[in-house]
Amino acid sequence: MSRKREHEPEKENGERWLLTYSDLITLLMIFFVVLYSMSKVDAQRFAAVAESLNKALGGGTPAKIEMSASPVGPSLFQTGTPSSKTTIPGNGTDPNNTAYTKPDANAIASQVKANTEKMSIDAIKAKLDKFAADNGLQLTLITATEERGLVVSIQETLLFESGSADITARARDILEKVSTVLAVAPNQIKVEGHTDNLTINTAKFPSNWELSVIRSINVVHILQHDGITADRLSAAGYGEYRPISSNDTDAGRAKNRRIDLVVLRSKYDVTEPSNQTPPPSPVVPPVTKNP
């Protein structure tokens, strides 16, 4: 008869703690994976994960979880019914389907118009700069982009004789080329006359005011004749009071004697004449006399 083997006592496993440790590590990994997935701000997945966690950890009826409209604040989550000002996630049109507020249509239209106008002004500037370079006029026909629009500055020596407001024959050809470029844009064009501070006192021009104004008016007539409609044009004379250089030197005074053609941005249309029909005058009821 065979002898039964005696039951050997089970040896104590000193590595059982590794099971608990590995479980904790696995849970931590899952937790961080969940956090990473939520960082992608996928609203639908986020809501599903939040509801599952709430059921598993809290029990009972889960509370509705919403994403905060702003990441700034003490908590990333909000519970309860969102207020009327809260943007509900999932109604957006971006790839992540995040919270989205419909932009104002007027703001979009204004931005598109501003961008289109900027491209038009930049194109005009490029054409005029090329014209000046091709004809050796870089020092007498200068363009600059300002807040109010594009300023085309033409020095006096290119347009007039000293002390005169009569446009020379060569100046007419130059203004004709400039008019061809400016005519394509619908913007208002303001012609500004400027002089230096040297006193002028003649029968025709008692002061620099008259000289600067008459010069700008004569340029307006040329621009109108060359295809720019009259309702886009205006003339102004500033005399010696808008210098761009010092009047203490001959070179500075030469820069100040100029005609500026200002292609105004459309936002300045309210300050310029337009071809809009003025509103009708109010009807005043007749006054009846007492008998």
What is the CATH topology descriptor of the largest domain? 60s Ribosomal Protein L30, Chain: A
The fourth-level CATH homologous superfamily of the largest domain is: OmpA-like domain
Largest sheet: 5 strands, mixed
Mean pLDDT: 79
Strand count: 7
**Topology as a string of helices (H) and strands (E):** HHEEHEEHHEHEHE
What's the end-to-end separation, in Å? 153 Å
* CATH arch. level architecture of the largest domain: 2-Layer Sandwich
If you had to describe this structure to a student in words, what would you say it looks like?
Mean pLDDT is 79; it is low at 62-79 and 81-86. Strand 5, helix 6 (208-225) and strand 6 (233-237) form a beta-alpha-beta unit. The chain has a five-stranded mixed β-sheet with strand order 3-4-7-5-6. Strands 1-2 form a two-stranded antiparallel sheet. The chain has two domains: 18-79, no CATH class; 107-271, 2-Layer Sandwich (60s Ribosomal Protein L30, Chain: A). The chain is built from seven helices and seven strands; from the N terminus they run ααββαββααβαβαβ. 19% of the residues are buried. With 291 residues, it is of the alpha+beta class. The N and C termini lie far apart (153 Å). It has helices at 17-39, 43-58, 105-134, 156-159, 169-182, 208-225, 250-256; strands spanning 65-67, 77-79, 141-146, 149-155, 189-194, 233-237, 258-264. Helices cover 38% and strands 13% of the residues. It is elongated, with a radius of gyration of 39 Å.
Descriptive labels:
291 residues, alpha+beta, 60s Ribosomal Protein L30, Chain: A, elongated
Short précis:
With 291 residues, this protein is α+β, with helices and mostly antiparallel strands. It contains seven helices and seven strands.
